[in-house]
């Protein structure tokens, strides 16, 4: 974009173009050419605002017109875009971005747009503990979320009103000049721009703190580098640093040389081919060094199994272990498992048969010994009880005890 073309554009057009570039840079990564162009457009906007004299330090937010509120965001947009510029001198970029953001915050403070809790730490000079910082950050985060929700609500309300207006325009003819009256809502537009400024204030405060920390880190790194470089040669500064590097290089080379020498005489441990023994090793019940006899030979999935050769050399053994299954290998075949299960079943049936025979024989013997005597004793006792009851009924006929209660008794 040429200087002549920007000079011919109006302030609303320049601001709208700069706002779109800022939104693109915030939502996604853009190239440096676009960011620099946005900075140029915003600087042109700032120059035109200064020439027109739109704002004054004697005014408050109530004295500024709705159409001019959006131009308060020009320093904020310029500070955010300036921070994204890639340059060798990062310290200069940080200082410029902080200057623009602080200019935006100071002007918003003069316009009574900055919340009171953000002004208390700078005004009192104390209460700068970690708890106070944390409380301010939480309150700032809540204000930021509330502003974002409010902007989303205003956007949805405008979209609904636009759809209803278009529907009404299709059903009812609108006269010339009446469309602007229908779409004009000054209070809602003012509320939207004030909410946007409030959101920008929260983001600017966080960004200023972040840039300040980055500037402190860069200053510390540069100071340390300058101290190392400024060491005089006669004091042995550079020679001392070079000697340390040489010593570290020598130790690293010696360690690698020893490792290569040990690798020639070191053989890897034999692989564990039994799943049960492997589980015991993992759970700590056995050691890898313990001898483990395992007759079941595992399947080999390596190249040796393809050619049908034997593992005669160390190279073939290592090549055969390349393609191994990820699951546990079986410890016995299906036939062996079936035979073992049949053996267990036969033992269980034999044990049950013996128990049944013992139970039946004992019950039979006991019943033969105790059965007749108990039956005879039960029969004699029943006969005696029946006779006693008959004698009692003879002595006490039915209704004999109630004769004194009857009138004729």
Automatic annotation (TrEMBL):
Q: Where is the composition biased (Basic and acidic residues)?
A: 382-397
An example GO BP is: TOR signaling
Q: Where is it found, in Gene Ontology cellular component terms?
A: cytosol
* InterPro entries, A to Z: TAP42/TAP46-like_sf, TAP46-like
Gene3D superfamilies membership: TAP42-like family
Q: Which domain of life is it from?
A: Eukaryota
Region labeled Disordered — which residues?
A: 162-185, 359-409
> Which residue intervals are annotated with compositional bias (Acidic residues) in the record?
176-185
Q: Name one GO molecular function term.
A: protein phosphatase 2A binding
Q: Which PANTHER family match?
A: IMMUNOGLOBULIN-BINDING PROTEIN 1 (PTHR10933)
Please report which protein family the annotation says this sequence is part of: Belongs to the IGBP1/TAP42 family.
This chain's protein is named PP2A regulatory subunit TAP46
């Amino acid at each position: 974009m040429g200087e002549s073309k920007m000079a011919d554009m109006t302030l609303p057009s320049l601001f709208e173009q700069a706002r779109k570039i800022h939104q693109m840079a915030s939502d996604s990564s853009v190239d440096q050419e676009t960011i620099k162009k946005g900075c140029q457009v915003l600087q042109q906007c700032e120059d035109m605002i200064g020439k027109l004299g739109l704002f004054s330090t004697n005014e408050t937010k109530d004295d500024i017109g709705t159409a001019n509120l959006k131009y308060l965001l020009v320093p904020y947009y310029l500070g955010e875009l300036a921070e994204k510029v890639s340059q060798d001198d990062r310290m200069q970029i940080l200082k410029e971005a902080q200057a623009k953001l602080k200019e935006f915050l100071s002007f918003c403070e003069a316009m009574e747009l900055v919340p009171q809790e953000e002004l208390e730490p700078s005004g009192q000079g104390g209460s700068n503990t970690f708890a106070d910082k944390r409380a301010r950050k939480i309150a700032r985060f809540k204000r930021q979320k509330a502003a974002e929700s409010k902007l989303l609500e205003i956007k949805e309300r405008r979209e609904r009103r636009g759809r209803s207006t278009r529907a009404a325009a299709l059903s009812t003819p609108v006269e010339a000049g009446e469309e602007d009256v229908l779409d004009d809502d000054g209070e809602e537009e003012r509320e939207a721009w004030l909410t946007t400024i409030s959101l920008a204030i929260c983001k600017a405060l966080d960004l200023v703190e972040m840039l300040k920390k980055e500037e402190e880190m860069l200053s510390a790194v540069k100071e340390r580098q300058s101290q190392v470089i400024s060491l005089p040669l006669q004091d042995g500064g550079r020679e001392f640093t070079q000697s340390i590097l040489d010593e570290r290089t020598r130790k690293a080379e010696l360690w690698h040389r020893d490792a290569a020498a040990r690798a020639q005489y070191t053989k890897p441990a034999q692989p564990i081919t039994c799943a049960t023994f492997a589980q015991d090793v993992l759970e700590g019940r056995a050691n890898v060094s313990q001898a483990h006899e395992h007759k079941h030979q595992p399947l080999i999935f390596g190249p040796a199994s393809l050619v049908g050769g034997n593992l005669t050399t160390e190279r073939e053994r290592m090549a055969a272990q390349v393609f191994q299954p990820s699951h546990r290998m079986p410890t016995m075949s299906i036939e062996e498992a079936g035979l073992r299960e049949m053996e267990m079943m036969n033992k269980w049936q034999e044990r049950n048969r013996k128990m049944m025979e013992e139970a039946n024989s004992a019950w039979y013997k006991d019943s033969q010994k105790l059965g007749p005597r108990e039956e005879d004793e039960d029969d004699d006792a029943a006969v005696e009880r029946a006779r006693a009851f008959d004698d009692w009924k003879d002595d006490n006929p039915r209704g004999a005890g109630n004769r004194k209660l009857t009138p004729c008794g």
